[in-house]
Amino acid sequence: xxxxxxxxxxxxxxxxxxxxxxxxxxxxxxxxxxxxxxxxxxxxxxxxxxxxxxxxxxxxxxxxxxxxxxxxxxxxxxxxxxxxxxxxxxxxxxxxxxxxxxxxxxxxxxxxxxxxxxxxxxxxxxxxxxxxxxxxxxxxxxxxxxxxxxxxxxxxxxxxxxxxxxxxxxxxxxxxxxxxxxxxxxxxxxxxxxxxxxxxxxxxxxxxxxxxxxxxxxxxxxxxxxxxxxxxxxxxxxxxxxxxxxxxxxxxxxxxxxxxxxxxxxxxxxxxxxxxxxxxxxxxxxxxxxxxxxxxxxxxxxxxxxxxxxxxxxxxxxxxxxxxxxxxxxxxxxxxxxxxxxxxxxxxxxxxxxxxxxxxxxxxxxxxxxxxxxxxxxxxxxxxxxxxxxxxxxxxxxxxxxxxxxxxxxxxxxxxxxxxxxxxxxxxxxxxxxxxxx
Length: 438
Known about the structure:
- By secondary structure, this protein is of the alpha+beta class.
- It folds into four domains: 4-110, no CATH class; 115-150; 162-243 and 383-422, Ribonuclease H-like superfamily/Ribonuclease H (Nucleotidyltransferase, domain 5); 245-379.
- It has helices spanning 4-10, 113-123, 129-136, 140-149, 199-207, 211-214, 226-235, 245-264, 272-279, 281-285, 308-316, 320-338, 341-348, 360-368, 370-379, 384-399, 406-417, and strands at residues 18-29, 32-41, 60-75, 78-91, 97-99, 162-169, 178-184, 189-194, 219-222, 240-243, 297-298, 305-306, 419-421, 427-429.
- The strands form four sheets. Strands 1, 2, 3, 4 and 5 form a five-stranded mixed sheet that branches.
- Helix 2 (113-123) runs antiparallel to helix 3, helix 3 packs across helix 4 and helix 5 packs parallel to helix 7.
- The chain is elongated.
């Protein structure tokens, strides 16, 4: 037969002063069936919490009890609740009463700390807060309070050697609806999330760090947003600015795609040329050396067997302008892929009149930040981990149908950043102490 101690261990109850009594029975509360356990919490207090007088010669005596409810984690998919009789004590010295304490809950709260830990564990996963509240039989506001209890101040005593900066679509409460994600590119961990990307706000944020800390930053990886580059020059004088390789390629990719659309519109919508240029647009944007040239297969719109390289040749035969632009576009991709600095300089130094018109603006933009673009080939640093974290933020926003509060969004993202997701699907805290506030 199981004892009350073994049942306590099974339920995760570690309070030695709590003793289970009676039998387990079912009770319906607000339409939900709970498994209820009866218990008593009592002990001999060592001193009075009010006057601090030690309990000697029966100076503190028992003075009745009070029934309290304690919500535990589910067992067998059923919520468990303890109806505990808390001992009341009376101090003869100060004539005041006090209640027995338990480490299962915080003072004045009926939700156990184990439930709060489980809520925090779920908050580190991509799960809507309403679903978390439903699974733990608490309200959404309770989940929000538990989330805010994990909020911690950002460490202003450290910045990484390689700092990645990029913006993402934030909440409506933020002016401009754009926030900034700061990431340590060596570890891929989020350092902090700044509410706005405007120069004044970012300047105030980075100025909160000491000069010695900012001087330790060696590289800053960002896109061509002028604010990032201007602030990096002023506030990080010893750091080298690196343009993100992805945004460099994106400049030319967008121009190439716009040209394809313009050339496609020269044909009627029912023409074969129009359909092929619309259906196989990805082939024109792909790297030439990655196209299939050996194996042949059946493709939509072709009666004969062909491959991606054959489709590319057919599309380029429809327009000489598109063909010239494609050749230049592939030269750019090849130079960046091989990290050919001299070849990249030669492309930027070409006469704008001799290159396809669609790439003129991109070449001028890169010439404006030529030194920083070359640094991207020299160092090899990219904002890949920053973009990955941005996708994670988008996933949180999607499952939550958006966030009303920027603070809640920031806390939840940083909370996941402090948790390590194991292969078995469980999450384990990275030695982070959480103060549970009711």
